Amino acid sequence: MYGKDKGGILQHPDGTVLKQLQPPPRGPREQEFYNKVYDSDCCDSILLELREYLPKYFGVWSPPTAPNDTYLKLEDVTRKFNKPCIMDVKIGQKSYDPYASAEKIQQQVSKYPLMEEIGFLVLGMRVYHISSDSYETQNQHYGRSLTKETVKDGISKFFHNGYCLRKDAIAASIQKIEKILEWFEGQKQLNFYASSLLFVYEGSCQATTVRLSDVTLAEKRGVPKGLLSGGDILEYNNNIHVINSTENGKIEASVSKGLSKFYALHKKAYSKRHHSQLSLKVENLEKDNVWKSSTCITQEHLNGNVIPQLEKVFCHMPAEIKESANVEVRMIDFAHVFPSNTKDEGYIYGLKNLITVLQNILDN
């Protein structure tokens, strides 16, 4: 929803989403922005790169029954995810544009007085918890309640799945924000106010696997090669799977063996933590090509002693697995984008501060 009584984002049967055009001047300004960036004749390298960080734009759409209602037709960034975890973060030191009235400025500042100091505001989140197979949601009041002292914990809540902190998703998010920051550092033609970053990561982790044969240590002291034989794979999703692949490529269910071996490796590697760093390479594997059969740890077993072991494994996954985390970070909401001849220092400040907070969550 936006406002008090206006419908929010709608889904179109073709897999796009429909965002109703806001009243003038906001709606036409956002439509003009998308038209400019996605103009088929566009040859501006700054705008062409910007497309990478936005949802794809497919023009405007009106329902046959209400031809005067106009919607922006946009890519559904969440479509490829099974259990999408979603967070909307408003970026910048000011959530009002240069043409805002004194009354509007006061209204916006009073909503979140810390915006100028923190540089971003959590507008809402939806987090999938694998333990309960349900979503936890937080609205805009949650974000406004966060202070300088609590904002780190407030953001980390988005990356916690009920068992552990998804450090892979945090690290991948940082990488994507850094790319957007690079774009802002290199452009002086647009300033963004009251615009957001949309974060999406896979809550069920169905496509994410940890391949033990790819475990390496950053330094050459390390894990004996014999410990890594067998090509064990651990997959964690809605129903955590632990499987062991045999030499002929068939998959053989081996919950207790796979888990105990993985846990033993984990303990051994981390006993050397003072002089070496465990790096787990995570690969996205096509399920059809990999899984022939598997045994699930069902929900009723999650209350047993398996969970402490899984927590120890997942919660200490190092940031090096970030390259394969299934994460999207896209810029959205462009009703207050204006031409400029200077860098967008307010947005840059917000991005840098958000990166710092996320990095602190990883480091601690």
Automatic annotation (TrEMBL):
Q: What is this protein called?
A: Kinase
Question: Where is the segment annotated Disordered?
Answer: 1-30
Query: What EC number(s) is this enzyme filed under?
Result: 2.7.-.-
**Top enzyme category:** transferase
Q: What is the lineage of its organism?
A: Eukaryota, Metazoa, Chordata, Craniata, Vertebrata
This enzyme catalyses: 1D-myo-inositol 1,4,5-trisphosphate + 2 ATP = 1D-myo-inositol 1,3,4,5,6-pentakisphosphate + 2 ADP + 2 H(+); 1D-myo-inositol 1,3,4,6-tetrakisphosphate + ATP = 1D-myo-inositol 1,3,4,5,6-pentakisphosphate + ADP + H(+)
Keywords of this entry: ATP-binding, Kinase, Nucleotide-binding, Transferase
* PANTHER family in alphabetical order: INOSITOL POLYPHOSPHATE KINASE, INOSITOL POLYPHOSPHATE MULTIKINASE
One Pfam family assigned to this protein is IPK
User: GO: which molecular function terms?
Assistant: ATP binding; kinase activity
Q: From what organism does this protein derive?
A: Grus japonensis
Instruction: Return the similarity comment.
Output: Belongs to the inositol phosphokinase (IPK) family.
